[in-house]
Write a structure and sequence with these properties.
The structure holds two protein chains of two kinds. Chain A is an alpha/beta fold. Helix content of chain A is about 35%, strand content about 25%. The longest helix of chain A has 24 residues. By secondary structure, chain B is α+β, with helices and mostly antiparallel strands. In chain B, the strands form ten sheets. Chain B has an eight-stranded mixed β-sheet. In chain B, helix 5 links the parallel strand 4 and strand 5. Classes of the chains: A alpha/beta, B alpha+beta. Chains A and B meet through strand 8, strand 9 and helix 8 of A and strand 2, helix 2 and helix 14 of B.
Chain lengths: ~300, ~650
């Protein structure tokens, strides 16, 4: 099991390119603090939003005097508020993520760091957490200066959490109140299924990005002979005799599995992206995620 | 499809366990290499389909196992030596010659059975394989040939005849069986070649001679097989071990009448040293035993000295277990020492009279002295026809016809077959046959004979005293009896009319000994004390005191057979299949009259090693494999297929690995 912690999560060159990007939100959410994002909340920006009738106590500075002159009635001009964006990255930290070279978990952390850096540059509220049943010590970060805290925290987490996707997501949903963008980086290899977890995220009315990360071993297994496959998480044993036909059958099963996940995501407005763990992080973030509209 | 296998059933059981072992080993060995994977989720889903899927998928998973099993099965089939029968070719004539002699009872056939059982099983397969137009014939042979079934295409009749074959204790002589077979295959042998009147009604048809034997017989040299194509199917193993009794005799000791000297000869016909015990029983009571140890191919003589009464049954058993128990025992009997009736016809011979009046001579013979004119009387004729005398001594006289008993002629000739030379004087004896019982203990080199004639005897003679010019004392057989003729007289009538000695023999110590020997051996009393053995199946000639009673022979198995005694002193008895002691009793009083024993004392039957080839006429017939022209061995092809399967298995195995 290669963790790949010796590799730096982000190279300076990549960080320089990431500064140009921003996270794409197709919807407008309410933020918590003043930020660079339009908020559904009305507030004080330069962008006009609407009129409404004056009620006692309103700020007199926002009365449209021109309209009063014409209609002899008091109307208030409303402006769009610009607030920060809640950007959350959930990393599947189950043991199965430890496979691959570099490991899927390392790649997941790199993606989380890259996206988090993009968010921090745009003054978004960035929160990166592994899936867990217990509350984690994951910090809520804002501003570019928090970048190093983000990287430090990511370095510290290990793929040891034997938690199912649905329980981890449920735990996250119960604790976080904000809405916004959620990026779930996972291999979806959960015996209990991923559907409940995704439904929960959608139910929180968050914009969900599902990054389905698979290692080359899973995509093109190089196994052969009479084997006893042991599941690294629950130590479940499966006896298989690997033949050419068997490998073909596995490929068919894998393709069906990916297609199912894609269909499930599409039906619920989730952006599904399938990633290979052996792709370089630069390509994933600057080309692939950009192409699929996660960043721009 | 038939099979000829030489494997015993025990080996088949072991072989049948091989596939079971492979299955067990396969599942024991199938320890899959454990490999940790991120998740077995997808694999499980992939093989779930397989579980749902058909049996074919399972078969594919165990393809290697099935290939292994297929290979082993093919190898086992090849071991069974299957034969493929083709239906082509002309109709065949098969003559099955089945050896039923004693050696075929040796239990070293396939599956622990006897050789005869194995031979019968092989013939049965051949009969089963006969096609519609083929004909078969079955001849069983031992010391005689027995055509059990003439040529027929009816398999059931052949099988029934084969089923009826049972083992015998007889010796082997294939010549008669060959003649029977050859007579049927070569009918023109019986006709006169070149005779225009002798029309050939039957064409000589070639036939296959299938000999199922262990080869334990003397080669037949003067024989032409003609149209017969012989095939020798050897039954039994070529390294069979056997220890056997080859000779046995029991004799009263000359010193004491109560003591019996028993001589036994045993031989090891194997290649290994054998040891055990030789035990002598008298009337089923163990009386003596000796430890015996025999090197390979060694012979050993044992002697026992025991006391036994008249009519005792002696049984010797060799306690060395081997595959042929029949020849590990031998029987002998001590006959009743009855007084013999001897008629002496002489014009007067004091020397003879004196020698016959000794105490010992009186014990063995009842003497009746008559003058030569007695031979012309009715009393003598009745006596001669009834055969009531055991020995008649004709001193210087001769009967018109030979009586049915042993005779001793002194200075006279039997009416037929014998001739004598001119009267010579003197006669000088130069050689004496001292080994003959009649001449035992005699020293005759100083014998002086005044005059006499040299003798010319019929075939089969034994010269006991040979003179410088020709035989002087000759013994010759005659229809079961023996005639002893002496060419010179003991006493002769001199010119003066007085009787004078013609030889100084009566003055020598050897004279009464010779007369006693004469009474014992030609009178028959010695013969009784050592009853000669008869081979199984041979005709036993019984010399019985016939007194008009009905008699029975009690066989060793207790069955009594009525004996047809028709006045003659020599009665043949043929029912001698079993070895052991036969008792002749009077039917009325159950009084034992005589005994004789039947023994398999034949080194040829005891030598159980099967020869690789046999000599039949002018050709040597080598041991053949069990196939005929229409049966082709397919084991090679089966083995080739097995190797092919092995190759496929190798490829499959490598494809799974690579």
């Amino acid at each position: 099991m290669a963790t790949g912690t010796e590799n730096p999560l982000l190279s300076p060159q990549l960080m320089a390119r990431l500064e140009q990007l921003e996270l794409v939100s197709r919807r407008v959410f309410r933020g918590r603090m003043k930020g660079e994002r339009r908020s559904s909340r009305k507030g004080q920006s330069v962008e006009f939003a609407d009129y409404r009738g004056y009620t006692l106590g309103d700020d007199l500075r926002f009365i449209d005097w021109n309209l009063y002159a014409r209609l002899d009635r008091l109307f208030l001009k409303l402006f769009l508020e610009e607030e920060d964006l809640h950007f959350t990255t959930i990393i599947d930290a189950s043991r199965s993520m430890g496979f691959g070279e570099p490991s899927k978990f390392h790649v997941a952390k790199q993606i989380a760091a890259a996206l988090g850096f993009v968010g921090l540059c745009r003054a978004d509220r960035v929160y990166v957490t592994p899936l867990a049943t217990q509350p984690t010590a994951a910090p809520v970060l804002r501003g570019r200066s928090s970048m190093w805290r983000l990287l430090d925290y990511l370095q510290s987490i290990e793929p040891v959490h034997d938690v199912s996707l649905s329980r981890g997501v449920k735990n996250f949903c119960l604790r976080s109140r904000g809405r916004g963008i959620v990026v779930l980086i996972t291999d979806l290899m959960d015996r209990g299924g991923y559907e409940a977890a995704l439904r929960m995220l959608v139910g929180r009315r968050m914009e969900v990005f599902l990054l389905h990360l698979l290692s080359p071993e899973e995509l093109d297994p190089t196994l052969q002979g009479d084997l006893k496959l042991v599941d690294c998480e629950d130590h479940d044993e499966t006896e298989v005799t690997i033949t050419r036909a068997m490998l073909k059958r596995y490929q068919q099963t894998l393709a069906a599995f990916i297609a199912e996940a894609k269909m499930f995501a599409a039906q619920r407005g989730i952006t599904y992206l399938s990633l290979r763990s052996d792709d370089p992080i630069e390509r994933i973030v600057t080309q692939y995620l950009r192409l699929h509209g996660v960043v721009r | 499809m038939n099979g000829v296998t030489t494997l015993p059933w025990g080996a088949w059981v072991v072989l049948a366990a091989v596939p079971i072992g492979i299955i067990i080993l396969y599942f024991l060995k199938l320890r899959r290499q454990p490999i940790e994977v991120p998740s077995t989720y997808l694999w499980k889903r992939a093989i779930e389909d397989l579980h749902v899927n058909s049996l074919l998928q399972r078969l594919r998973a165990h393809l290697l196992l099935f290939l292994q099993l297929l290979f082993v099965t093919l190898a086992l089939i090849a071991l069974g030596r299957p034969l493929w029968e083709t239906r082509g070719g002309p109709a065949k004539r098969l003559i099955f010659l089945l050896d039923t002699s004693a050696s075929m009872a040796a239990r070293d056939g396939a599956g622990g059975g006897s050789r005869l059982d194995q031979a019968k099983a092989e013939i049965k397969q051949r009969i089963d394989a006969l096609r519609g137009q083929d004909v078969g014939m079955l001849i069983a042979f031992s010391d005689r040939a027995d055509v059990l079934q003439e040529f027929t295409s009816d398999k059931n009749r052949l099988l029934a005849a084969l089923e009826g074959v049972s083992p015998t204790a007889r010796t082997t002589n294939i010549a008669e069986a060959l003649r029977a077979a050859a007579g049927l295959a070569n009918p023109n042998r019986a006709s006169t070649a070149g005779d225009v009147k002798d029309v050939q009604v039957a064409d000589p048809l070639p036939a296959d001679l299938e000999i199922y034997s262990d080869g334990g017989f003397a080669g037949v040299s003067q024989f032409d097989l003609g149209n017969l194509t012989p095939t020798y199917h050897a039954v039994g193993s070529s390294d069979a071990e056997n220890v056997a009794v080859t000779a046995m005799s029991a004799e009263r000791s000359p010193a004491s009448n109560d003591q019996v000297e028993t001589f036994v000869r045993i031989a090891n016909f194997g290649t290994q040293q054998r040891a055990g015990r030789g035990v002598l029983y008298v009337d089923d009571q163990l009386v003596d035993a000796q430890a015996v140890e025999l090197e390979a191919e060694q012979e050993l003589a044992l002697s026992f000295s025991t006391s036994a009464l008249e009519g005792s049954q002696l049984r010797f058993e060799l306690e060395i277990p081997d595959i042929q128990p029949l020849d590990n025992r031998a029987f002998a009997t001590l006959g009743a020492q009855r007084v013999r009736s001897v008629l002496v016809v002489t014009p007067g011979n004091n020397s003879l009279l004196l020698a016959m009046e000794t105490e010992e001579a009186k014990k063995v013979a009842r003497l009746d002295f008559r003058t030569p004119d007695y031979l012309q009387g009715d009393e003598y004729r009745r006596r001669a026809v009834a055969g009531s005398d055991d020995l008649i001594i004709f001193d210087r006289c001769a009967p018109e016809t030979m009586p049915p008993c042993n005779t001793f002629f002194i200075a006279a000739l039997p009416p037929q077959q014998w001739r004598a030379g001119e009267l010579q004087s003197p006669l000088i004896p130069i050689d004496i046959d001292r080994t003959h019982p009649l001449m035992r203990f005699l020293d005759l080199f100083s014998l002086q004979i005044v005059q006499g004639r040299v003798l010319e005897a019929p075939p089969g003679k034994t010269t006991l005293i040979d003179g410088a010019t020709g035989p002087l004392l000759v013994l010759a057989p005659r229809e079961g009896f023996e005639d002893l003729v002496m060419g010179f007289a003991i006493v002769s009538q001199e010119e003066t009319g007085d009787l004078g000695l013609n030889t100084d023999w009566p003055l020598q110590r050897s004279w009464p000994v010779f007369v006693f020997n004469l009474l014992r051996h030609l009178g028959g009393s010695a013969e009784e004390s050592f009853v000669p053995g008869v081979l199984p199946g041979e005709t036993a000639i019984l010399r019985l005191d016939y007194r008009g009673e009905k008699m029975e022979v009690i066989r060793p198995d207790g069955v009594s057979v009525p004996l047809d005694v028709r006045g003659s002193t020599a009665t043949p008895f043929t029912d001698t299949e079993l070895t052991g002691v036969y008792r002749v009793e009077t039917a009325a009083g159950r009084k034992p009259v005589s005994f004789f024993s039947v023994n398999l004392l034949d080194p040829q039957e005891s030598r159980l090693r099967v020869p690789a080839e046999i000599e039949l006429g002018y050709e040597e017939v080598a041991q053949s494999s069990a196939t005929s022209e229409n049966q082709h061995p397919v084991w090679r092809w089966v083995l080739l297929a097995a190797l092919g399967v092995l190759g496929v298995e190798w490829i499959v195995f490598n494809r799974r690995i690579a």
